[in-house]
Design brief:
By secondary structure, the chain is an alpha/beta fold. Helix content is 55%, strand content 9%. It has four domains: 75 residues, DnaA, N-terminal domain (GMP Synthetase, Chain A, domain 3); 166 residues, Rossmann fold; 78 residues, Helicase, Ruva Protein, domain 3 (Orthogonal Bundle); 91 residues, Orthogonal Bundle (Chromosomal Replication Initiator Protein Dnaa, Chain: A), CATH 1.10.1750.10. The strands form two sheets. Strands 5-6-7-4-8 form a five-stranded parallel sheet, with helices on both faces. It binds adenosine-5'-diphosphate and magnesium ion (MG).
Length: 450
């Protein structure tokens, strides 16, 4: 019933208010004439109660509930799992039904915002970006398939849509189809059920460029995999371009058939590394530019973007969500975007990012990974086989925690902050030239962040 009330509220308060204020609410109780809701932060609680309390009460009553008053609560201080953080911000309004004409094409709609222009390039994603650009520029099929992989929210879908947009401009006659692996499966199952498998095959085999997002989804789904394999081969045989994404490298997708894995590896496999501080800051700056146009008159204090880039390291989606909320708050309360305001209205997101790995955990995982003793992480040994892992741990400590260099130094057996700095620089340098180190770090990072 709250869902129904939400639909009504969406109409009365408008989409942007709804997304910012109503969607993050959770109904926790409704008894004895009191409807209780949970808001993610105190700030949101006060704001919603003051500005939307009446509307919510009215809609609840319209929906036939006997409600005397509403209560808003804020959750107890407890860490929120990182994967839930984006929920309050990103909760989408109910989607409009898809147009019928779209149904005949095996594709999903593209997000108009996901273009190459809006993609910020930094060290962690420059290879993936360059490969995507190359494929989008067409010409002889060079990398087939192009396989993009990386963690959640690092820009895989964005890049795929960007390729599709670019192809539509450069080769308007080409039939470019983008869809998620889940949609692929859904269509396949539907075709089976409706005995239209020949149509299905024909449809997919007649495209010029096929993009399948999040292919890990079909792992373990045997008949879908089988069909995917045949589609894949048929297209490659015809010299058609295929672009695939997944959350990990082909070889690491569990329950994916070997022959598919090896097929996926035939082309170019590139990964999107977790963002670094510079990239996050670059993304924030770019998005802020766009917001400035949207909210003229809003000012932002120095250091806010730096603060966010430093504190929100999980993924770009969360980062964007934070910025969106920040601008919405500031414009509603008519205040400058200051550090205080950011801290106040992003408590939940910041708190979740705080639920971070500790330096001890990092040292333990790194030691395990390189098969060295934990005590060597903080000990004095200087042989390369121990010093290198130690530097990796220093690097990760800087990246994944909010500890300062002197603090990190203290936890590495009382080393000086310049030693830590040197270690971090060394790793940064190696990451550019030594593929193994880059992969090790990527892996460790995923392990630690999951
Ligand atoms: P993935 O598919 O890897 O989970 P998405 O492509 O959906 O991630 O990206 C999540 C959000 O972050 C999107 O809104 C996207 O526009 C944004 N994003 C990710 N990387 C970048 C980038 N380098 N520049 C600009 N926006 C980015
Ligand atoms: Mg995606």
């Amino acid at each position: 019933t709250w869902g129904r009330v939400c639909n009504e509220l969406l109409k009365t308060v408008g989409k942007s208010n709804y997304t910012t204020w109503i969607a993050p609410l959770r109904m926790i109780d409704m008894a004895e004439g009191i409807a209780a809701f949970e808001a993610p932060t105190k700030f949101m609680r006060d704001w919603v109660s003051r500005n939307f309390g009446e509307a919510i009460l009215r809609e609840l009553r319209n929906d036939g509930h006997v409600v005397e008053r509403i209560e808003f609560r804020v959750p107890e201080l407890r860490p929120i799992p990182a994967n839930e953080v984006s929920r309050p911000v990103a909760a989408p309004a109910p989607a409009a039904p898809k147009a019928r004409s779209d149904e005949d094409l095996p594709g999903a709609p593209l997000d108009a915002r996901f273009t190459f222009d809006s993609f910020v390039v930094g060290k962690p994603n420059e290879l993936a970006h360059a490969a995507a650009r190359r494929v989008a520029e067409g010409g002889p099929v060079t990398f087939n398939p192009l396989f993009l992989y990386g963690g959640v929210g690092l820009g895989k879908t964005h890049l795929m849509h960007a390729i599709a947009h670019e192809l539509q401009i450069r080769r308007p006659e080409a039939r470019v189809r983008y869809l998620s692996a889940e949609q692929f499966m859904y269509r396949f199952v539907q075709a089976l059920r409706e005995r239209q498998i020949m149509d299905f095959k024909e449809m997919f085999r007649s495209v010029d460029v096929l993009m399948v997002d999040d292919v890990q989804f079909i792992a373990g789904k045997d008949s879908t995999q089988e069909e995917f394999f045949h589609t894949f081969n048929a297209l490659v045989d015809q010299g058609k371009q295929i672009i695939i994404s997944a959350d990990r490298a082909p070889g690491e997708i569990k329950d994916l058939e070997e022959r598919i894995k090896s097929r996926l590896q035939c082309g170019l496999v590139v990964d999107l590394h977790p963002t670094d501080y510079e990239l996050r800051l670059g993304i924030l700056q770019t998005k802020t530019e766009a917001y400035r146009a949207q909210y003229p008159g809003l000012t932002m204090a120095d250091g806010v973007l730096e603060f966010l880039a430093h504190r929100i390291t999980t993924n770009v989606r969360v980062l964007e969500g934070a910025l969106t909320r920040l601008f919405a708050f500031a414009s509603l309360v008519g205040k400058e975007i200051s550090l205080d305001l950011a801290q106040e209205c992003l408590t939940d997101i910041l708190r979740a990012s705080d639920r971070k790995v500790t330096i001890e955990e990092i040292q333990r995982k790194v030691a395990e990974h390189y098969n060295v003793r934990l005590s060597d992480m903080i000990g004095p040994k200087r042989v390369r086989t121990i010093a290198r892992p130690r530097q990796v741990a220093m690097y990760l400590s800087k990246q994944l925690t909010t500890r300062s260099l002197p603090e990190i130094g203290r936890r590495f057996g009382g080393r000086d902050h310049t030693t830590i700095m040197h270690g971090i620089r060394k790793i940064e340098e190696l990451m550019g030239s030594d593929r193994q180190i880059a992969e090790d770090i990527d892996l460790l990072r995923r392990l630690l962040e999951s």
